[in-house]
Design a protein that fits this description.
Elements (H helix, E strand, L loop, with lengths): L20 H31 L8 H12 L9 H28 L10 H31 L11 H17 L3 H26 L11 H31 L8 H12 L8 H29 L1
Helix pairs in contact: 1-2, 1-3, 1-9, 3-4, 4-5, 4-6, 6-7, 7-8, 7-9
Length: about 300
Amino acid sequence: MSDMAPGPDSKAGDGKQTTTAAKSFISGGFGGVSAVLVGHPFDLTKVRLQTAPAGTYSGAMDVVRKTLARDGVKGLYRGMGPPLVGVTPIFALSFWAYDLGKKIVYSATPDRVSPKLSTGELAFAGFFSAVPTTLVAAPAERIKVVLQVQGQGGKAQYSGPISVVRGLYAEGGLRSIFRGTGATLARDGPGSAAYFVAYEQAKRALTPAGADPSQLNLGPVIIAGGLAGVAMWSFAIPPDVIKSRLQSAPQGMYSGFFDCARKTIVQDGVKALFKGFGPAMARAFPANAATFLGVEASLKAMDKLF
C-alpha cells in the first residue's frame, strides 16, 4: 500500500504505486477483521463512557470492571456482530477508495516529476476513502452502538443485530437506521486523512536508505499501523462522541449533529467532547497495528499466488 515505488500491480513503467482494485478490496477486508478482533473491548468501553449519564462510571477501568461483573468476559464483546460482519466491506471499501483517491491524484497531475505523493495528496486520498465507506459504516455503527449501550442497567431491549434493525425500522424507517451518517463522515473524513498520511510517512521514515518500503518486514508495518491509528483518533474523538450520542439517543432527542454538539456542551461542558479518549487511544495502536498487519500480510500472500 505504499506510494513510494512500483509494485507488481502497478501500471507498467509509470512508477505509480497503486494496487489492483480486487487486491485493495480483499486486503482491506482482512485488515478490518483483524482490527475488530483486537479492538472491540476498547471500543465498547469508549462508547459506554461517551453515552452513559454523568456519574455512571468513574473512568475506563470502572466500565471494564462493571461490565465484567455484570456480563462476564462476553460482555466486553457485546455488539461485535455488526462490525465483524460489516467490517469486511467497510475496510475493503476504505482501502479500495484510498487507492482510487491516489489514482485520481495521478490522473490530475499527468506531468508530475515524481511518483511520490505529497502529504496533501495523501490526505486527499485518505479523506476521499471515507466518502463511500460512510454509506456502509454509518448503519453498522448505529446498530453496534445501540447494542453496546444496552445492558448497562435492566433488561436488554434487543437480542441481536437483526432485532435492532427491525426495531429501528419500526421506529423511523431507513432514516432511523442511517442516523448519524453525517457525524460518521465528520469523524472519518479528517480521521482517514490523518490515518493514511501517518501510515505512509511512518513507512517512509522506517525504510532504510535505498530500500523499497513495499519490502519492509512486518515489524515496521506494525509500528506504522499503530502510529496511524493514534493519528486518526487524535482528530476523531470529538465527532465520535457526537456520533455515539446521536446514534444511541431516543428518537427526537436531537435534531442533528450540531444540535447534539450544542446540547452536549451546554449540559456537560466542552470536556464531554473528549469522553472516551483514553480507551480510544489505548485501542488505537494495537487495533490499527493489527489492521495494517492483516492488509500487508494478505497483499504479500496474494502477490505470491497471483
